[in-house]
Write a structure and sequence with these properties.
GO terms for molecular function: alpha-L-rhamnosidase activity. The protein has 970 residues and is α+β, with helices and mostly antiparallel strands.
Length: 970
């Protein structure tokens, strides 16, 4: 309905209430009473709201000093380096912003001997041009690179040979550095930055085995080595300078406080892929932030109403850490009952201090990977500034802050804020003298809090914390994770009562602490779970099969425990959203809860920084359209239409309307499945690839639907024609009628399961081909050992159900084989779905990877059979496929409320109950299997009989309305 009230304004508190009309307006209807008033808080809506606030940091903190060890700041000048590419390619930053999000990236491809020129905008890589490198240049050997920048001009030279001249360099970033993505790496012998018209460098370094290098690199073989998935600046700050403690005391007048909201942001969350700050008000925890966003910068809203004291001195305290762009900016509005507002902002009156003595740099928690840099936290409680988070701090170690300028382009976080849930250990075991093991019971994103009292004799005593997803054979925590992360911190105690607490997060189940035997830690530990809170309404499932119920709960845990700032692949190794993860994760979330904010936010993020895998780029439009079906809100489809359209592979279409391309290009790599080669069933890659075309067909189909919704009717027809032509060509050229399967491509007879599975799941086959395809899919022992990954199995299940193989799909979900969810639970001890079926398949697997949680989707959409027909869940089809289950019962969540399905069946009787939410219609379909309409009894919510039930072919169709409809078939 249109907004019927006055327009809300910035930084306003409003209240609203609702009542509901039952029945039709103008007819017999009744209005309910009014609901209790609900508070609506409007945060800052534009830059003027932040006019009085500025970004602050500690003096001497991140990126302050213009000379080493601060970033080398030089807009115009010459950057020179001697380097070689040790992977496929490597990137060099110039004119880049201090948070590495805006500027220029020259990617040098050693295999293809090309320069790919990229303009970075808000973290997104926008290709400019491709340049062929001159003959004789071998980037796999050391070369001398120089980039001369002057105004809008950038000249690039390798070994003094001109490579490129660009006169359209518009962004005025001040820094230089390096960036790698998956498969990329480089070694650097030296680097120099000399400003224009000067002779003295602002940065100069020659690297050898004794060099100190930034955290994104390491030294080896006499060079600075930058491995894959790393980035950073030259002359980056010393790690100890990353910590900032910021505080401010302020007085509030007497009166009744009706609401107090702290709006806060920080820069930059990208290097660590986590929050920049945690904040306390009057020594009480208030929240963390900001979350990552692309194209704008997020601020968080913290409700601190209950934490403030009118007529008293109050304190805001931030503990912050970042590699780049160190700034915290905040605005506090305190609303009083008489209508006036007290406002507190970050500015020159704030105090700060570095945290190096309290939190000395102990290295990065990454030991084998470089996706992000996050600090190990070796806390020395003897140097904590006691009482710094509370009013009237007595210490003299805080100084006026450094003003860092306004954080602009701010936008309220699109998702619910990350909250905090406290858990006590599920069990505590003393492994030996001074050795304790705490089992959280479930793997989650945690920080650890230790609260204890140490006598004077134990001041200086160390606690070594080791956290892991698994246990070693001796019962200790496996703190060197398979994923390449090392969770180990050392905390040093002071005398007296104390609380030590992680600032950052780790993802684990087990905590081991080694210390002296004199300390009793049995009651000392609390696990702090930082996660977007679970919505009030969530899905449920129970059946007559205990294994299936276990599998559903495993998948539900993967939804519950991974609501972070974005839908990440895993909180352990990469902390990044990817298209392949998004599709399974998002589809699981929408059937488990009506929490759509993180889904939409992650979709928005991903289409602005697409990955490199060809098929993955075709997936976001499917997720975006399915989100529209859930919500009925097409705004996101309309806003990002050009981005969804941009990622399609239409430039590769051949004369038959099929994608024809090389398997690998720098930004488009055909993947099929992962890990390889174990999980691709011997797939043979060809230039016309069945899997790539199946995903492109599905994307074109969704684009056609999305265009229609968005009013782009010409586009809808165009995409529909392209999709149909592609589908026809695939069925003519790739489908083997004799086998009932698809070949891997146009130029091969090989039939990996992926070619047929994806095609069937994504709608490529003709209807009369589906039965034969289903028979092929379940042949050759594929149900005994699933020959696809725990991510791709989502589409195996989808294909089986679409092909009428309900029993086979059920057997896959409740299998006890080594490629099963049962194996994850009982063989490997997982409490969330893993990245792979086992570490034997993927040695660096994680135990917190929602991309393996597809049974929660298959159970909701197919076994319980709840599928949306019309946008906004206004029309719903309920077509259960329980196979041989005696009982299956569950709730599938929609934006209008849960759809409850309860099935009981035996040889003589089938009972079905479907409860629909209000303002919803639907149809129940059930196979009669020879029964007649006379054998069916239907009871509708209004008490009427089953006269509206129909028999269509061998199917029973029963109309559904709000309330419970019961069906019995004898």
């Amino acid at each position: 309905m249109p907004w019927p009230f006055e327009r809300l304004t910035s930084r306003q508190i409003a209240f609203w209430r609702v009542r509901v009309r039952i029945g039709r307006a103008g007819g017999d209807s009744v209005l309910t009473g009014w609901s209790e008033p609900a508070k609506v808080v409007v945060g800052p809506l534009g830059p003027r709201d932040w006019d009085d606030a500025t970004g602050i940091w500690t003096e001497g903190g991140a990126y302050v000093r213009p000379a080493d060890p601060g970033p080398a700041l030089c807009m115009n000048g010459t950057f020179s380096t001697r380097f070689k590419v040790t992977g496929t390619s490597a990137g060099v930053f110039f004119r880049i912003s201090v948070d590495c999000q805006d500027g220029y990236l020259w990617r040098f491809d050693a295999d293809e001997r090309k320069l790919y020129k990229v303009h970075m905008r808000n973290g997104h890589e926008n290709p400019i041009a491709t340049v062929d490198l001159p003959d004789g240049i071998d980037l796999h050997d050391y070369v001398d690179l120089s980039i001369n920048v002057d105004g809008n001009h950038a000249g690039t030279f390798i070994n003094d040979v001109p490579v490129d001249s660009d006169d359209d360099i518009a962004f005025d970033g001040p820094s230089y550095g390096f960036k790698t993505v998956a498969g990329e790496s480089l070694a650097v012998k030296n680097a120099t930055i000399v400003p224009l018209n000067e002779t003295e460098p602002v940065f100069q370094a020659a690297y050898d085995d004794d060099s100190v290098v930034p955290p994104y690199a390491h030294v080896a073989d006499g060079a600075m080595v930058i491995d894959e998935n790393a980035f950073g600046l030259l002359g980056d700050v010393l790690p100890g300078d990353y910590w900032a403690l910021l505080r401010h005391d302020f007085d509030l007048p007497d009166g009744q406080i009706t609401g107090a909201y702290l709006y806060a942001t920080g820069r930059s969350p990208f290097g660590a892929r986590q929050h920049v700050y945690r904040v306390w008000v009057n020594d009480a925890y208030a929240g963390q932030g900001p979350t990552r966003d692309i194209g704008r910068r997020a601020y968080e809203t913290h409700d601190v109403t209950s934490l403030l004291k009118a007529g008293s001195t109050n304190t805001i305290a931030f503990q912050a850490w970042t590699q780049t762009g160190g700034r915290v900016q905040a605005l506090l509005d305190v609303h009083y009952a008489d209508g006036h507002v007290e406002t507190i902002v970050t500015g020159p009156e704030w105090q700060g201090r570095p945290g190096l003595d309290w939190l000395p740099w102990a290295g990065d928690m990454n030991v084998k990977v470089n996706y992000f840099v996050a600090p190990r936290e070796n806390i020395d409680a003897r140097h904590e500034p006691l009482g710094w988070k509370a009013p009237h701090y007595a210490g003299t170690d805080f100084r006026p802050v450094a003003l860092r300028g306004v954080v602009d382009n701010l936008h309220a976080d699109d998702s619910a804020g990350i909250g905090r849930i406290e858990y006590h250990p599920a069990s505590v075991t003393k492994l030996g003298p001074g050795r304790w093991l705490f089992d959280a019971g479930v793997e989650r994103v945690y920080s650890v809090r230790a609260s204890l009292v140490a006598p004077r004799s134990l001041s200086g005593t160390e606690l070594t914390l080791r956290m892991g997803e698994e246990l070693n054979e001796d019962g200790s925590a496996r703190y060197e994770l398979r994923s390449g992360i090392r969770y180990e911190d050392t905390w040093t105690l002071r005398e007296g009562a104390q609380t030590l607490e992680h600032w950052g997060y780790r993802c684990f189940r087990y905590l081991e602490i080694d210390t002296v035997d004199d300390l009793d830690l049995s009651d000392a530990i609390t696990f702090l779970n930082d996660v977007v809170p679970e919505p009030a309404q969530v899905g449920s499932f129970a059946s007559s099969d205990d294994v299936l119920d276990e599998v559903w709960r495993l998948c539900a845990n993967s939804m519950i425990e991974n609501r972070n700032d974005l839908y990440m692949d895993t909180p352990t190794r990469e902390r990044m959203p990817y298209e392949g993860d998004l599709l399974t994760r998002g589809r699981g979330e929408v059937v488990y809860s009506h929490s759509y904010d993180l889904l939409r936010k992650t979709c928005r993020y991903i289409v602005r920084i697409p990955g490199k895998f060809t098929e993955y780029k075709f997936m976001p439009i499917q997720m975006a359209y399915e989100e529209y079906l859930e919500t009925g809100d097409a705004d996101a489809l309309a806003e990002d239409w050009a981005l969804y359209e941009r990622e399609q592979g239409l430039r590769w279409l051949n004369g038959d309307g099929l994608i024809e391309k090389d398997r690998k290009t720098p930004l488009n790599d055909d993947i099929i499945d992962w890990p390889q080669p174990k999980e691709i069933d011997g797939f043979e890659f060809t230039r016309v690839n069945t899997v790539v075309n199946a995903w492109q067909y599905a994307a074109l189909d969704y684009l056609s639907k999305a265009a229609e919704v968005s009013g782009r009717h010409d586009d809808a027809r165009s995409f529909r024609r392209l999709a149909e032509r592609m589908r026809d060509s695939m069925n003519r050229q790739m489908f083997d009628e004799r086998l009932g399967a698809y070949h891997d491509g146009r130029d091969t007879d090989h039939t990996a399961i992926h070619s047929t599975m994806y095609s069937a799941a994504l709608g490529v086959p003709e209807p009369d081909q589906m039965k034969r395809i289903g028979e092929w899919l379940v042949s050759d022992g594929r149900l005994d050992w699933v020959p696809v990954s725990c991510n791709a199995v989502a589409w195996f299940l989808e294909a089986l159900y679409r092909c009428g193989q309900d029993q086979a799909a059920l057997e896959v979900m409740r299998s006890h084989s080594e490629t099963s969810w049962w194996s994850m639970i009982h063989r490997w001890g997982a409490t969330q779905t893993m990245e792979a079926w086992s570490p034997e398949i993927k040695p660096n697997t994680t135990f917190s990877h929602p991309w393996g949680a597809s049974p929660i989707v298959a159970i909701a959409r197919w076994l319980l059979g709840v599928r949306l027909v019309e946008a906004g869940a206004s029309e719903i089809l309920v077509e259960p496929h329980p196979a041989d289950l005696k009982r299956a019962k569950g709730d599938v969540i929609t934006v209008r409320g849960p759809v409850s399905v309860d099935i009981e069946q035996d040889e003589d009787r089938t009972s079905l109950q479907v409860t629909m939410p209000g303002n919803t219609n639907g149809t129940l379909r059930w196979p009669l299997k020879g029964a007649k309409l006379a054998d069916v009894t239907v009871a509708y919510p209004d008490g009427s009989d089953g006269s509206a039930a129909k028999k269509k072919g061998d199917w029973l169709e029963v109309p559904l309305t709000a309330g419970t409809t019961s069906v019995v078939i004898r």
